[in-house]
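Notebook entry, cofactor series.
This is the third protein in the set we're modelling with a bound small molecule. For this one the ligand is guanosine-5'-triphosphate. I'm keeping the input format identical across the series so the outputs can be compared line by line later. Sequence and SMILES below, as received.
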Amino acid sequence: MHKQRSNDTIAALATHPNRGGVGVIRISGSQSTSVLHKLAPRLPAMLPSHKLFFTSFEDPSGHIMDQGFAVVMLAPRSYTTENVVELHVHGGSANISRVLRAIFSYGVRPAEPGEFTLRAFLAGRIDLTQAEAVMDMVTAPTEGALDQAFTQLRGGLADRVIALREAALNIQSRLEVQIDFIDEDLGEVLSERATNTLRELITEVNDLAETWHTGSKLRQGARVVLIGPPNAGKSSLFNALLRRSRAIVTPIPGTTRDYLEELTDIHGLPVLLTDTAGLRKETEDAVELAGIERTGKLASEADLILVLTPYGAKESAIPDDISADKVLRIRTKADLGEGDVSAVTGDGIESLFMRIKDRLLPSKDVKSTQVLVTHERHYQALKASEQALSHAYEASATGEPADVVVVDVQEAVHQLGLIVGATSTEDLLDRIFGEFCIGK
Ligand SMILES: Nc1nc2c(ncn2[C@@H]2O[C@H](COP(=O)(O)OP(=O)(O)OP(=O)(O)O)[C@@H](O)[C@H]2O)c(=O)[nH]1
Ligand SMILES: [Mg+2]
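Returned structure with ligand:
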């Protein structure tokens, strides 16, 4: 995808077409300023950097298309570190297409998804975790997710990973020195020190890796499924948790046939909430049976399953294949008697939000601005480096020679380097930047 890593000039709309009064078009590359002067010939020839100018924009035939603002950001003080021009034009899609067409007619090519950010990464202005955070900033569904993205964008995770990689590199170079050592005694002292440092490093890598269980839920959201017998009040509670009337509620058992999914925000945590068809064994209704089958599948994929039992009924059965540690039992219809929540009065809803959040985020008191691992890619690389370091530790503790131990330490350095992009492959970059939207 990013085969041409050349210095050609690229352009794209950076905002969403038709969704705003203003559309921002970004041009990056050595030709960007000369293209601006073709588009806006009335601008002074020498434009100061980082200053906004009001101007009109012309197509190649000299016809005035639009008027708006233009700003030049000269290298290296720009997003990509190249010469960048940004145009603020009217945001309609017809207008934007026409201005872009004029830009492309001057030899500029359309930017690929994530290509501006890729250039910022290749120029060393940001590392890979920061590049990934750019996209997270754009897609974050809740403020909690947003805080995490911003922490990562400012280099919170990169700093931690770089420090771990430095520590591993230190051990590696100590081992490399040792390989050439003739003096056996000094070699042994070094080896003992390396073993101790390895043990500390393994703990640190593991501590960071384990924050993924919280971080992934903050970024991607958690799945919470409501199950229970017909008429248990699932759809009513679903609506109460969403704070709006989304699902149909009736006194007729079997009202919900298919499942309903909605994203909600529980104290900053994005939660995909699912209302399901009531579970009853004796039904012969084909639609209801299909719904019940789906409920089982949804429950098996959920992070948390709310099992509802209405006031006065005997405890609802839990399907066999559901693990107990994912279950939170709730007594509904508390306005009629003893219970946890009432969808009618709203009693117990706030404390249910807290209970759901506590169950989903295993580490209590986690601040959303704390450094957490939010991407599976980072988690996998941390785990791989932890494993390599553990191998090295065992080899070192059992007196293996330095040239054996060093191989695993090198692997750990490599894995940590993949996270920040100190080492990267074309494949990896394509995978990461291919998920970006155009214009970022
Ligand atoms: N008093 C009282 N009634 C409730 C409460 N929650 C639900 N109900 C009533 O119970 C009946 C069933 O509610 P639903 O929310 O449709 O139940 P459900 O579990 O989704 O039922 P199915 O979709 O048929 O499986 C309706 O008549 C609701 O008005 C509650 O908290 N208090
Ligand atoms: Mg229902």
